[in-house]
Amino acid sequence: MIGKDVYLTQMPDNAVDLADLFRFYNEQSTDLHVFVEKAQAMPKNGATGMFNYGTGYGTILGIIAALRLSHTLVHPTTWCKEMHRGTKSRVPKKRSLEAAQRLYPHVSLMRTVRCKSPDEGYVDAMLIAGYGKRILGW
Questions:
Q1: Could you tell me if 120 and 11 are in contact, meaning their C-beta atoms sit under 8 angstroms apart?
Q2: CA angle in degrees (0–180, nearest 5) for 36-125-94
Q3: CA–CA dist 134, 82 (Å, integer)
Q4: What is the pLDDT of residues 7-23, one digit of tens each?
């Protein structure tokens, strides 16, 4: 989620808290624009995992629609192609981490202070937000 600034926060566990979070950022910014990674099937995930993923995705889109927030759905290959430029690794997750650390060296990508390695969700969220800023010319 971005305005002119990027805010990185843990995804709330329920729809009410997520709606409150969106509402809070919307009240703080006159130019809020939300970038959401477009959902896609992930064959290695089981049926239950995919159902939960789809439910979460639908909840996010429903809240965005209910609050009438400006938003863009972005396909993973689209933001990766843009944000992975200049990275050396051949492994996509490592490329994302390399790009995030290069572009946002001051941002902690750890979910908690006890974590020993960066959170993949945080890494992707930072890069999607960075992609959004580029697209909007911010």
A1: no
A2: 125
A3: 9
A4: 677 889 899 999 999 99
